[in-house]
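Reopening: Two-component response regulator still failing for me.
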Amino acid sequence: MLASYTILYADDEEQTRENIGEILSLFCKKVYLAKDGKEALQIFQNNTIDIAIFDIEMPYFNGLEVCEQIREFNQKIPLVIATAYTDTEYFLKAVELNLAAYILKPVTAIDLKNALKKCVANLKNNKNEKIYFSDIVYYDTIKRALFVNEKDVILRRSEITFLEYLLKRVNEIVSYQEFENNIWEEGMSSAAIRSLVRDIRKHLPPETIINVARLGYKLKLYK
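Support: Ran it again with your exact input. Result attached.
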């Protein structure tokens, strides 16, 4: 059920984190462990994660705050919260964040199994969330990864951000100024953008990212 998935589990209680991590590692492709909300976000942003489980009480950012930040740019990934709280406020927040499951602590093996079943069901429901650039090249919006011949292409964070921005504006011209001002808070020069586009184009079919002279870039999808 989980052999092809990568899971992120975050909990500030070391023993709980290690115990759950060992259980997950028996069934999953890969398991990342985080000791607090800050580390969890760093791992999520730098790796391809399929399912994420967070304790609600953690340093820096609690589980719900981590989920909120993830939902700002990823609405599909199954997220699970583990908590000792039963307050209505927490349940309502969980609904608002479209969580796959809400587990009460202490987490049992059965609780974990049931939550993961829901996550896998969500992933299967979203299995068509693939945007094709050719018969063999596509972008998986769930895994946030580019695939060529079913092999995951390693893209830098900036390349993923750029490509996803274009995917929101398919067949529209996105100006250089818009890229410079709106994607990266610190800004990015025109020369840096051109270099980034050259690197992305190496993995895409010709004429996928079109340079419209003096205006910007336009993305064309496979028909």
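Helices lie at 14-25, 37-46, 63-71, 88-96, 109-125, 157-167, 176-182, 190-201. If you still see a failure, please send the error message rather than a screenshot.
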